[in-house]
Amino acid sequence: MSIELTLYPRRNLAYLRFAGIATPSEYISVVERLQGAGEVHPGTAILADLSRVEDMVLDFLQTLSMVGVESRLCSRVLPGTRYACYAPDDLAYGASRMYHQIADNALPYQMDVFRLEGPALEYIEQPERTIAEFLRAAR
After folding, report:
1. Are the CB atoms for 18 and 47 separated by under 8 Å?
2. How far is C-alpha 44 from the geometric centre of its chain's CA atoms?
3. Which of 10, 27, 35, 60 has its CA 20 to 30 A from that of 69?
4. What gap in Å lies between CA 13 and CA 63, rounded to an integer?
5. Are 36 and 14 in contact (CB under 8 A)?
6. Any residues with CB less than 8 A from the CB of 30 and at least 6 apart, and which?
7. What is the DSSP string of 43-87?
């Protein structure tokens, strides 16, 4: 698994691109890097792109534990900061919804899960309709 973290300070956005097999430990490692990055502000929105996930090693208890660790790491995040998960296939969508349900009460983010790129980008207040367009424009 790899999670590529790219920061777009002018857009006040962090882009997480997941690929391969998703694991809780790798996600927590990315959250640690994200929260320690100097360009990240308390209201930096997140776009998690799970379109390249092949499998997920994640059950309810692992998700609960992951969210607990993440809540301690996100103490600087402003309540209501937007977090969009783009999860087009059933596996990623289901796992993202489980994460969302647990995180909803534990994390400061205002989070939602989307099967389509356009609504995910709109949720985090980006004008583009596709992630490819966003990546070209945000450089």
Report:
1. no
2. 11
3. 10
4. 24
5. no
6. 3, 5, 16
7. T-EEEEEEEEEEEE---HHHHHHHHHHHHHHTTTSPTT-EEEEE-
